[in-house]
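Input record (one chain):
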Amino acid sequence: MRYLTLLGAVLFLAACQPEETAEMRAAQRAEEAMAKVTECAAVQCTTLDLDGTGIPDYTVLNDMTHLKVLMISYTDFSDLNDIAGLTGLEELHIGSTNVNDLTPLSNFPNLRLLHIQNTDFTDAGSLTSLRNLEELAIGGNSLTDIGFVRSLPKLKNFDISNSDVADLSPLRGHPALETLAMEYAPVTDLSPLLHVRKLRQVGVVAPYIQDELTAQYEQLRGRGVIVNYEPVLVIC
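The corresponding structure, as predicted from the sequence alone:
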């Protein structure tokens, strides 16, 4: 009888607890993220990972000039001006955010890596200011023109997966490109890649479905290029 009484009390107390809502979970994640920010500021950390856990006010990051790597993908981040003071950044991850204006990227001349996939930006021309960029993930949108790569002489790893890019001619003769991910991009001519001296790996989707490209894939292999059917870059 005593056991049943205790069990009943436990069940009663459990029933009295408020049900966790989506808003409560979001508030908890924001609190945890702000705790990360506070700790990072206190120890002058160089890497801050807020992927998937946005904060209420991103301008609080502006004073953290010690940061070299900032990861805020999969959040509600929307304005690069909010972090314009982080001029020493070398890596910036803003994929799957609400950023649509890339103009403020000129504030980050030291960037070596930029992941900005799955964002609805309006003008990729602003990328030309990032002449130190070595890795760029920019797929998952309606991008069609990659002419800006001509201004990125150090670019080694390039991801245009799930974009609308069909013309690879801007890559012809690129001095540094080593890997190209183009899964689910409507590319119909690979010949510009035959003139990329350092190219060593490309990622494609079921290439043998595209009979017209078979010979070009074989030409790439003949030059020592690995043709992958799986993603060649890990994007986060």
